[in-house]
């Protein structure tokens, strides 16, 4: 028995190397920072970058397989591996942002910042675990690892009152949503006596269930997920936290934390609440367990989320706050892929996430650079920026156009596939709501562009110059935003392959 356990553990660890690599890296970051941190301020950043590259190598080797590890607590499949690529790309870009961040530069002059990179990596590790967890307890623990790391990062600039306030609000809302989610999980366990989400599904199909209790548990669990993905009405923390946190942290949360929430949400819904004994058509459609209005609930959440996010964004004058509401709206767009309840919708969701990674991180990077040069995040400082910083203004415009979903950008391709999936599934009303919301979003994005190119530059303002390193980072983000808006076949194939093997046990 002991020998068999050792063999199973060894085999599981072989398929767990990306997570092991991240764990070793974050341990090295904090250790080396303690030893060398005073002399080499950025040692944590460079160790993090090296560790992320090693983790990427292990993740690439892992792609294509589909198996369970640690006795069914986690799965490794192309779906989880796809999200691991998203998390790694996001973390890598954020570490580079952090090396150039004026907020962190001021902080590093007062104290070591190795713990900052430690929590960036621990959040990434938690996101990895969220993408592959198929056990209710491990799902909850991995979500809490992401949440606790997020709380600390949001309040990392301890000298800043608004950063501390952001962290406190994040903790309060997070604790409430975690309580709701764990209660929903306990109800599911009480109904089935199972923790593995595939076993839960089998129990529902074979033993029956109480529709009322199941509905209550689903709503409670969706509340927990809704908080993580900033879905209405669980979004209240998002604007205050995004505005108060350091810009690098805000950008990271808007991509990695949201992607982790969606990765887990889709796996949980498909594994637990879809009748896998029924096949609907050739499009990979899913049959929801009888009597459960899952599609309707998610559709209403999607419509509310994109509408509330876009309408409130119109009135914002702070760019970080505007992008926070924009992030809420984009959660609504991504939920459209879940509403479709078929592989076509999930592959569209994956395509959109890759687009969102480049265009959203790029937008936040431009805001960070302008805030460093002007000392403000308000939209008023962008007046005449097209004359003072033409390259940044053009790049920022491309990111905003992509966020709107206008061709020929990656954002347009993402929305095109989402709307096509909705129309294919005959959810026409939600597609119409999505198109109307895209038109609304055009107003507040174009408002920024208008200020940059049509606003009168303030007299006496000198041209704003950026270092070659800044320009390189902008190019790294803007080139894929344009390239994949024209040549998107490899991305589409990548997403479709990842979904085709999704859910294999």
Automatic annotation (TrEMBL):
Keyword Translocase: yes
Superkingdom classification of source: Bacteria
EC nos: 7.1.1.-
Catalytic activity from the UniProt record: a quinone + NADH + 5 H(+)(in) = a quinol + NAD(+) + 4 H(+)(out)
Position of the signal peptide: none
Family annotation (Pfam families): Proton_antipo_M
Keywords of this entry: Cell membrane, Membrane, NAD, Quinone, Translocase, Transmembrane, Transmembrane helix, Transport, Ubiquinone
Function: NDH-1 shuttles electrons from NADH, via FMN and iron-sulfur (Fe-S) centers, to quinones in the respiratory chain. The immediate electron acceptor for the enzyme in this species is believed to be ubiquinone. Couples the redox reaction to proton translocation (for every two electrons transferred, four hydrogen ions are translocated across the cytoplasmic membrane), and thus conserves the redox energy in a proton gradient.
Identification of the protein by name: NADH-quinone oxidoreductase subunit N
Naturally occurring in which organism (per UniProt): Candidatus Kryptonium thompsonii
Recorded name of the encoding gene: nuoN
């Amino acid at each position: 028995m002991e020998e068999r356990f050792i063999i199973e553990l060894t085999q599981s660890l072989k398929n767990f190397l990306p997570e092991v690599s991240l764990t070793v890296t974050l341990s090295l970051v904090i250790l080396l920072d303690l030893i060398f941190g005073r002399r080499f301020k950025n040692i944590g950043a460079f160790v993090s970058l090296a560790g992320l590259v090693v983790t990427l190598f292990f993740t690439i080797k892992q792609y294509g397989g589909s198996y369970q590890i640690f006795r069914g607590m986690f799965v490794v499949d192309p779906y989880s591996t796809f999200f691991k690529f998203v998390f790694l790309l996001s973390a890598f870009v954020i570490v580079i942002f952090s090396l150039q961040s004026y907020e962190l530069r001021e902080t590093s002059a007062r104290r070591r910042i190795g713990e900052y990179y430690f929590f960036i990596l621990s959040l990434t590790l938690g996101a990895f675990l969220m993408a592959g967890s198929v056990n209710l307890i491990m799902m909850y623990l991995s979500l809490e690892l992401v949440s606790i790391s997020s709380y600390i990062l949001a309040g990392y600039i301890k000298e800043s009152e608004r950063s501390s306030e952001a962290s406190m609000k994040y903790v309060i809302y997070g604790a409430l949503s975690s309580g709701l989610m764990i209660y929903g999980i306990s109800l599911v366990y009480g109904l089935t006596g199972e923790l593995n989400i595939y076993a839960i599904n089998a129990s529902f199909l074979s033993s029956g269930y109480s529709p009322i209790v199941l509905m209550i548990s689903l709503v409670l669990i969706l509340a927990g997920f809704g908080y993580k993905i900033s879905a209405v009405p669980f979004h209240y923390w998002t604007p205050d936290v995004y505005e108060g946190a350091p810009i690098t942290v805000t950008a990271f949360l808007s991509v990695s934390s949201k992607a982790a929430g969606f990765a887990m949400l889709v796996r949980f819904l498909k594994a637990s609440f879809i009748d896998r004994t029924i096949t609907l058509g050739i499009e990979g459609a899913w049959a929801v367990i009888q009597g459960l209005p899952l599609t309707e609930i998610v559709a209403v959440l999607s419509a509310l989320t994109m509408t509330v996010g876009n309408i409130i964004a119109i009135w914002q004058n702070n760019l970080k706050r505007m992008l926070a509401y924009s992030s809420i709206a984009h959660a609504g767009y991504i939920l459209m892929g879940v509403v479709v309840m078929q592989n076509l919708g999930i592959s569209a969701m994956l395509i959109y996430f890759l687009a969102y990674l480049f265009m959203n991180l790029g937008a936040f990077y431009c805001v960070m650079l302008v805030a460093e040069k002007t000392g403000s995040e308000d939209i008023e400082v962008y007046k005449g920026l097209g004359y003072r910083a033409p390259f940044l203004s053009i790049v920022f415009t491309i990111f905003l156009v992509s966020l709107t979903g206008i061709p020929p950008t990656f954002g347009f391709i993402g929305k095109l596939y989402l709307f096509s999936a909705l129309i294919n599934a005959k959810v026409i009303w939600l597609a119409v709501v999505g198109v109307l919301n895209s038109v609304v979003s055009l107003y507040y994005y174009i408002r920024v562009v208008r200020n940059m190119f049509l606003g009168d530059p303030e007299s006496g303002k000198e041209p704003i110059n950026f270092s070659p390193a800044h320009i390189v980072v902008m190019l790294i983000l803007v080139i894929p935003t344009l390239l994949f808006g024209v040549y998107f076949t490899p991305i589409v194939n990548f997403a479709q392959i990842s979904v085709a093997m999704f859910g294999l046990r």
